[in-house]
Amino acid sequence: MKTLISYVALTVFVLASSFTIDVQQSLNQQSNKPNDCFSYFRAHRQGKLGVAMTWAVSTPDVVQFVIERSYDDYYYEPIGSVDFNGASSYKFMDSTPYPGTGIYRIRAVKADGSTECSPVEKVRIIQRG
C-alpha cells in the first residue's frame, strides 16, 4: 500500500512539474514572439553609463512606453517611461543596472488602454559602473 501511495504521489508531482514548466515556456515564448507594434528593440551595455535601449514602433495608436527590467524573466519592474511623440525611434538609458543578466522589454500603452510588449533583450553586466 505504501508503494502505491508513493507511486501516486510521485506521478502527481511529475505531472504538476511538467505543467509548470509548460506554462513557463509558453509565457516565455509569448514575451519573445514578434508583434505588430514594434519594428525593433535593441539593448546593449554602454560603458559606465549603463544599458542603452533603442526601439521603434510601427503603429500610431501608442500613447506611452513603459521600460521594464527583470533579472529572472518572470517578474518585471518598471524603471522608467517615455511618452509617444510621433518620432520614428525612441531611446532610454538604464543608469542603475545591477551585476548579472538584466532582461529588458518595452511595454507600449495604447490609446484604448491595452498594452503590447516588445521582444526581450538580455544584457550581461559584469560590474556596476
Portion of residues within helices: 10-25%
The separation of the N and C termini measures 61 Å
- Low-pLDDT stretches are 18-34
Rg over CA atoms = 19 Å
Shape type: flat
Bin the strand percentage: 35-45%
CATH architecture of the largest domain: Sandwich
- Mean pLDDT equals 81
**The first-level CATH class name of the largest domain:** Mainly Beta
- Count of distinct structural domains: 2
* Structural class by sheet pairing and helices: alpha+beta
* Strand runs, count: 8
Q: Number of helical runs?
A: 1
CATH superfamily of the largest domain: Immunoglobulins
What does this structure look like?
By secondary structure, the protein is an alpha+beta fold. The protein folds into 2 domains: 1-33; 36-125, Immunoglobulins (Immunoglobulin-like), CATH 2.60.40.10. The protein is 24% helix and 44% strand. The chain has one helix spanning 2-32; strands at residues 38-46, 50-57, 62-70, 77-83, 90-94, 100-110, 115-117, 121-125. Strands 3, 4, 6, 7 and 8 form a 5-stranded antiparallel β-sheet that branches. It has a 3-stranded antiparallel β-sheet with strand order 1-2-5, with no helix packed on it. The longest helix is centred in the first third of the chain and has 31 residues, at 2-32. The protein is flat and about 70 Å long. The chain starts with a helix and ends with a strand.
